[in-house]
Structures are given as structure tokens and as C-alpha cells.
């Protein structure tokens, strides 16, 4: 257990941030899942709309530090590639 006042404060802060970050990641996963469901449903228009809603959420994860920039870019790229395949 921490003995210093600053260390105790850091523990409290980390617990609060952990909850916030967990919610952020969960929200991102939900948006990505909606895109994947639309893709598996085979409806390109719905999938496009879902991706448009998911992109800002994924980018927000990058700015808030819960996702790496390259990870986010890769996710968006792969989702959009799968949507493009639907048209073909």
C-alpha cells in the first residue's frame, strides 16, 4: 500500500481514469460492432452510415489516449475495405 500522500492520490486518480478509459474502449467496440453487423447483413448503405458514425468515435479514442493512431487507422481502413467489397 502507498505511504505517501501523493502516491495515495495517484491511486485514486488511476482508479477514476480506469473507469473512464474502460467506458471509452467499450463505446468504440460498440460502434465497430455495429459496422461489422451491417457488413455481415450485406447492406452497403447501412454499413457506410455506421462507419461514418464510428470514425469520429475511433479518432476520439486516439486523442484521449486509449487507442494508438496506427491501430485506429488500421481499423478504419479494414472496415472501409470490407464495405467496398460489398459493392462488388
Structural overview:
- By secondary structure, the chain is mainly alpha-helical.
- It has three helices and no strands.
- The chain has helices at 5-41, 44-64, 69-87.
- Helix 1 runs antiparallel to helix 2 (44-64), helix 1 packs parallel to helix 3 (69-87) and helix 2 (44-64) runs antiparallel to helix 3.
- The longest helix has 37 residues, at 5-41.
Topology:
Elements: H1 5-41, H2 44-64, H3 69-87
Helix pairs in contact: 1-2, 1-3, 2-3
What is the 3D form?
Answer: elongated
Mean pLDDT over all positions: 95
What is the N-to-C succession of helices and strands? Answer: HHH
Based on the structure given, which CATH architecture is correct? Up-down Bundle
Distance linking N and C termini: 59 Å
Total discrete domains? 1
Count of helix runs = 3
Kindly report the name of the CATH homologous superfamily. Answer: Ribosomal protein S20
Biggest beta sheet summary: none
Structural class: mainly alpha
- Under CATH, the topology can be stated as Methane Monooxygenase Hydroxylase, Chain G, domain 1
Amino acid at each position: 500500500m502507498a505511504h505517501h500522500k501523493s502516491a495515495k492520490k495517484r491511486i485514486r486518480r488511476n482508479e477514476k481514469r480506469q473507469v473512464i478509459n474502460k467506458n471509452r474502449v467499450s463505446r468504440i467496440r460498440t460502434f465497430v460492432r455495429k459496422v461489422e453487423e451491417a457488413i455481415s447483413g450485406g447492406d452497403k448503405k447501412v454499413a457506410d452510415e455506421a462507419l461514418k458514425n464510428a470514425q469520429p468515435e475511433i479518432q476520439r479514442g486516439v486523442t484521449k489516449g486509449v487507442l494508438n493512431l496506427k491501430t485506429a487507422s488500421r481499423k478504419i481502413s479494414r472496415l472501409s475495405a470490407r464495405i467496398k467489397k460489398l459493392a462488388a
